[in-house]
Amino acid sequence: MKKKQFAAWMTAAALVTGTWAGTMGVYAEEGEPYYEDTVTLSLLVDQNWLDQYGEALTALSDAALEKYNIQIELENKTNGSDGDNLVKTRLAAGEMTDLLIFNSGAQLTSLNPAEYFVDLTEYDFMDRVQDIFKEAVTIDGKVYGTPVSSSNVGGIIYNKEVYEELGLSIPKTWDQFLENMAACEEAGYVGILGTCADAWSAQYTLLADYYNVAAQEPDFAKNFEAGTAKFATTPAALRSWEKLGDLSGHMNSDYMAATVTDGFDLLLEENAPVHWPMTSQFFANMESLSSHEDADKFGIFPVPGDDENDNGFTVWMPNGLYINKESENTEAALTFMEFWVSDEGMEIFMENAMADGPYLIDGAELPEDSYQGVLDLQTYFDEGKTCLALEFLTALKGASCDQICVECISGAMTPEEAAQVYDEDCQKMAQQLGLEGWE
């Protein structure tokens, strides 16, 4: 291997298979490190992640115990801000577990990873991790994590059966999308689903449009954080708010009262809404609420821009796996991390979890039984037609974004007003973060 090696591996490589490496406490079995005494690695993870991927993590942990004599001991934390504060407190107190599953992107930056986590930049196994994920776990040129699940994209969920019935094609521009909605409504369907009672769901047209913003303004995230670019004064970013403003006339009549749970039911009714701005987690949620067959009735396409020759997805990165710099079991933690991203480890994981999008490990191809809507995403990733969501590029996101989106959709604010109010909301956040340029 051309880069850093685990010390245990360096020792084991010089040994005859099965010979004891006394100084390291490791056997070399068929070229792999094997610990004579079971090494227990503690891992802190929130319950939301375990609810979706617990079976896959258990299978992976069982395999690591058999292969390396490394045992994973889970510690659960609460979800949301309370769980985030717990992580910060334990890091500061020197009481963090050996391993941590936590957000990638801007929320990782808030943990000061250079102080608390092992720098993975020069380890060979990081060559398997795709650059789009590395970008979300890189701070000051150092890489700190590996992905613990698949990617997830934002876009427009659509009913494939209705599209086939009406002879519609995937829209390449926003105007074509509006034409498709009008055709659906003429045929007796609802153009687009609104679930504004859950205000967070109203954000996805705005957030998933970031691919189109970045296509026109590649430095928008950097300039936005610096306070030199704003949504209200950057035409490409203002366009996202204009798209929100186009939606209300095409939504279900109860869009202000409907919840996301209501939305899944509405999609399966007669003359149902044909579209829904959402993420590709939709497919797993639809299966859990209905069936895999119903999930496969739907596909997802990117939020269209205004250039029919450039269509791509805004991508949300999965959580990362991080190693506590103060762990007494760093070598074993590195061994487990490398196993997870190996062909063998990823196969175990994929056998026990459904994907929301393409995996971010080279060689980890989506299983054939993945949702068809997820399988269709692979081409965009292969062609580089993807962009990180803005929240992975800057910590600057206004706390009232969801409510402002609802007011823009409802017509209580014009797109121009909503963009201005959102900039003011972001200014409050920027001042809390101590960012220069937003005074």
UniProtKB/TrEMBL annotation:
Q: Which keywords belong to this entry?
A: Cell membrane, Lipoprotein, Membrane, Palmitate, Signal
Q: Tell me one Pfam family matched here.
A: SBP_bac_8
Q: Where would one find the signal peptide in this protein?
A: 1-28
Identify the InterPro entries for this entry: Bact_solute-bd_prot1 (IPR050490), SBP (IPR006059)
- In which domain of life is the source organism classified? Bacteria
Is this entry keyworded Cell inner membrane? no
Annotated SUPFAM superfamilies: Periplasmic binding protein-like II
Name this protein carries in UniProt:
Extracellular solute-binding protein
